[in-house]
Design a protein that fits this description.
Elements (H helix, E strand, L loop, with lengths): L3 E6 L3 E7 L10 E4 L3 H14 L7 E6 L3 E2 L4 E2 L13 H9 L2 E6 H11 L9 E4 L7 E5 L2 E3 L20 E2 L2 E2 L2 H5 L1 H8 L11 H9 L3 H25 L3 E4 L1 H21 L2 H5 L2 E4 L6 H13 L2
Parallel strand pairs: 1-4, 4-7, 8-13, 13-14
Antiparallel strand pairs: 1-2, 2-3, 5-6, 8-9, 9-10, 11-12
Helix pairs in contact: 3-10, 5-6, 6-7, 7-8
Length: 298
């Protein structure tokens, strides 16, 4: 059986690891800082070589969009300046042989949580990044659903109110009210002594018992519940897996989120759906790259 080489390309760091076809990591993941495109690619190729990929490796590569996943091309992600039309799959297979697959990070994380994490065993799952932004991925009938243009699952663009924090370029969007950037906007001038807080500041203040911070998170939780009700009504998933913010601050989001879900979602669809935090923790990035490869080898 060929080996998998997982490559997670991020704006600040890249991570690589070797795995088998069951997704079991066979080497300690190797991480390094993302710099300019030439230096970063040179480092990636050197690490792949050091991992001894064999004669017919399968590359799973994750990266922020925009991408041309079908052709294996990184187009011009805003978090990767200079990565313009990089034929990453072709470059890897030209050097090392084998096959390769490129996927945007939200869909790849959905695959990872479905195959190895909190959504394992389900056939209908929605994954939401719930971090700096609000990207998403859909697993429907046991398959990743990408849509006509590859943009399926981008629920962060849904408008929840005529006005509100800006996310996805739209005031009052799901991302605006519920992402890390949106929570920071909600909290401006509401936390004593912290005029321009980050989402992390809000979470820390809530953990220290600051009522104003807790209220900001409760408000975000209400909008989270409204958006999840739309998702539940539209897709009828068995499980919704929520990423970073929910895993850290769920205790302040939960009650208001559930209250809105009870008011807004179809009762039968809500009863069939579990809402859970992501299960892969700090390993999610590299496991998402590995999941891209294992998914395409099924």
């Amino acid at each position: 059986m060929p080996d998998i080489i997982g490559i997670d390309i991020g704006g600040t760091k890249c991570t690589l690891a070797k795995a088998d076809m069951n997704g079991q990591i066979m080497s300690e993941p190797i991480q390094f800082a993302t710099t300019n495109v030439h230096a970063t690619l040179t480092e990636i190729y050197a690490i792949v070589d050091s991992l001894k990929p064999g004669d017919n490796p399968v590359f799973g590569i994750t990266c922020g969009g925009p991408l041309d996943s079908a052709k294996g091309i990184v187009l011009s992600p805003p978090n990767l300046p200079g990565w313009n039309h990089i034929e990453i799959v072709n470059e890897l297979t030209k050097r090392f042989g084998g096959t390769g697959y490129l996927m945007n990070d939200a869909n790849a994380c959905a695959l990872a949580e479905w195959q190895f994490g909190a959504g394992k065993g389900s056939r209908h799952m929605v994954y939401l990044t719930h971090g700096t932004g609000m990207g998403g991925g859909l697993i429907l009938n046991g398959q990743l659903y990408e849509g006509a243009s590859g943009d399926a699952g981008e629920v962060g663009h849904i408008r929840l109110a005529p006005k509100g924090p800006i996310g996805y370029g739209k005031a009052g969007s799901f991302e605006g009210f519920c992402s890390g950037g949106g929570i920071a906007q909600l909290a401006v001038n509401r936390l004593p002594g912290i005029p321009h807080p980050t989402a992390k500041d809000v979470a820390m203040a809530a953990a220290n018992g600051m009522p104003q911070a807790i209220n900001v998170l409760k408000e975000s939780g209400r909008y989270l519940g409204q958006a999840l009700a739309i998702i539940i009504d539209c897709f009828n998933p068995e499980v919704i897996v929520l990423g970073s913010i929910y895993t850290r601050s769920g205790q302040w989001l939960e009650a208001s989120m559930r209250e809105e879900l009870q008011k807004e979602a179809l009762p039968s669809a809500l009863a069939a759906c579990r809402i859970v935090p992501a299960g892969l923790g700090e390993s999610l990035g590299i496991m998402s790259a590995i999941a891209v490869a294992t998914y395409h080898q099924r």
